[in-house]
Amino acid sequence: MEQTDLLEQEPEQQAPAFQLKGSMLTLTTLELLSNDLAALDSQLAEKAAQAPDFFRDAPLILALDKRQPGDLPDLAELLTLCRNHGLRPLAIRSEQEEELAAAAAIDLPVLPLSLARDRNLPAQPQPAAPKEPELLPARIINSPVRSGQQIYAKNADLIVTASVSAGAELLADGHIHVYGAMRGRALAGINGNTQARIFCQQLGAELVSIAGQYKIAEDLRRIPAWGNAAQIYLDGEQMHIIAL
Amino acid sequence: MAKILVVTSGKGGVGKTTTSAALGTGLALRGHKTVLVDFDVGLRNLDLIMGCERRVVYDFVNVINGDATLNQALIKDKRLENLYILAASQTRDKDALTQEGVEKVIAELAEDFDYVICDSPAGIEKGAHLAMYLADEAIVVTNPEVSSVRDSDRMLGLLSSKSKRAEEGREPIVEHLLLTRYSPERVETGEMLSVEDVEEILSIKMIGVIPESQAVLKASNQGIPVILDEESDAGQAYSDAVERLLGKDIPHRFLEVQKKGFLKRMFGG
Ligand SMILES: Nc1ncnc2c1ncn2[C@@H]1O[C@H](COP(=O)(O)OP(=O)(O)OP(=O)(O)O)[C@@H](O)[C@H]1O
Ligand SMILES: [Mg+2]
């Protein structure tokens, strides 16, 4: 179905002329500390002499918010001064009325303080926040899992509200919960998730495993929680099995 | 429309055929028109236990192959008006039963009868699958020992996932547990699992507990289903199971070790 839809739409669609992409750029910020442009000029010359490569056509943000109180230097003059030393100011960082107006007058973009923190400067347009991991619904099994049956919860937790027989196998990329007797095999975090845990109401498992680390019934039997409600988790290399 | 019942177990020799014969006879005794279908191709035990082996002319496979009509192949029980048997074939060809053929024959039987009882062969392979595939209800026969219980558990897994009902997403097969060859003495000495143990492991409802009984062998040697031996403990236990199958809630019997003499009871011997 999708195939034909796409084909039908094709003639009407033009080749895209642009696309928008979020991105993170690391930009240098020049924080203006004094209002004395002469001092700035001489100090920039000094720095440029030390690191000429750095100063060659270096894009940067001009931060005005750390400036000592006092009259705002002429912005156009400030920009020229920077350019003379090889710097390429892209925008100012400021939230102060007067500075915003001055920037608007010479068509200079403004980054609000909140967006221009530290060394990680988002470019415009503002990049999308990294996508929250999507919550996959747990796989829920309400009938007994019998010998010879295998149930896998891919990218999800597995919840069984009935008993799990010897010879049955539960697999999950997430946690495993068994609200019944657990007599089979339970393997949580099988994609390597060491944070995955196993919870069961009555521990009688043939095998439990988290992220590939496992214990078999012979070991489990000696644990006080055997036959009772238990939680199983990894702490580094160590598998812990504690009463619930 | 008939109710289609499968008597199945996984493990062999646990008492499926004995149970099929007893339950089928018990249902017929209570006025339900019943047919027993033997799915155990090559072994053919059901007709022996029902005492009709000499009257088998055509069998299940003959009907599937079109060599005989159902009416020609159905054997009428000599004791009960509304009880019939469809015998298994003696052929050694295990593929003689086809899914399509089985479905056609069972559908035809379902139109005429109240109960179609399918006596499954042992195992979990094709024959057992064909026997349970069309079932509405299942009697899972188990002996009180670990390997039998484990096989029954496997069979329960197949019933819930590989039946026609499961495949079509309909209501699941109704599962009943029938524990047979139960010996309270051997449970006491720890040689056998108790009713509670088995119920807990399999977590399905117990429809009957049939004691280990001399009467079973005696009845099958005579070709009389043990349920007709009303004096026997096994016969009575099967009668109770039939009542429960029909919806009655009655307590289980024959679970305790036989009472000792009067004096011993008085003085706690
Ligand atoms: N309650 C009982 N007490 C004593 N013996 C029994 C009892 N039930 C069954 N038996 C005996 O167990 C044996 C097997 O019984 P039966 O043929 O019914 O089992 P089956 O499950 O149908 O076997 P198969 O898997 O071979 O079809 C027979 O010899 C039968 O007499
Ligand atoms: Mg049999």
Question: What this model shows, in words?
Answer:
The complex is a heterodimer of chains A (244) and B (269). Chain A has 244 residues and is α/β, with parallel strands linked by helices. In chain A, 20% of the residues lie in helices and 31% in strands. Chain A has helices spanning 2-9, 37-50, 52-55, 75-84, 97-105, 217-220; strands spanning 24-26, 28-31, 58-63, 87-93, 110-111, 120-122, 139-141, 150-153, 158-160, 169-172, 176-182, 185-188, 198-203, 207-210, 213-216, 230-235, 238-243. In chain A, the strands form 4 sheets. Chain A has a 6-stranded mixed sheet, with no helix packed on it. In chain A, helix 4 (75-84) links the parallel strand 3 (58-63) and strand 4 (87-93). With 269 residues, chain B is of the alpha/beta class. Chain B has a single domain, classed as Rossmann fold, CATH 3.40.50. Chain B contains 13 helices and 8 strands. Chain B has helices spanning 16-29, 46-49, 60-64, 70-73, 99-112, 126-133, 146-161, 164-167, 184-188, 195-202, 214-222, 233-245, 262-267, and strands at 3-8, 34-38, 75-76, 83-86, 115-119, 137-142, 174-182, 206-211. An 8-stranded mixed sheet of chain B has the order 3-4-2-5-1-6-7-8, sandwiched between helices. In chain B, strand 3 (75-76) and strand 4 (83-86) form a beta hairpin. In chain B, helix 1 crosses helix 12 (233-245). The longest helix of chain B is centred in the middle third of the chain and has 16 residues, at 146-161. The chains are: A alpha/beta (244), B alpha/beta (269). The A-B interface holds A 143-149, 162-163, 165-168, 180-181, 183 and B 124, 150, 153-154, 156-158, 160-161, 172, 200-201, 203. Bound molecules: adenosine-5'-triphosphate and magnesium ion. Adenosine-5'-triphosphate binds next to helix 1, strand 7 and helix 11 of chain B.
Number of strands of chain B: 8
Gross CATH architecture of the largest domain in chain A: 3 Solenoid
**Shape verdict of chain B:** globular
| Structural class based on helices, strands and sheet pairing of chain B | alpha/beta
Helix and strand pattern of chain A: HEEHHEHEHEEEEEEEEEEEHEE
**Which sheet architecture does the biggest sheet of chain A show?**
6 strands, mixed
Number of DSSP-assigned strands of chain A: 17
Helix content of chain B: 40-55%
Number of helices of chain B: 13
CATH architectural category of chain B: 3-Layer(aba) Sandwich
**H-E string of chain B:** EHEHHHEEHEHEHHEHHEHHH
Question: CATH fold name of the largest domain in chain A, please?
Answer: Pectate Lyase C-like
Distance between the termini of chain A: 51 Å
Low-confidence stretches of chain A: 1-11, 119-123
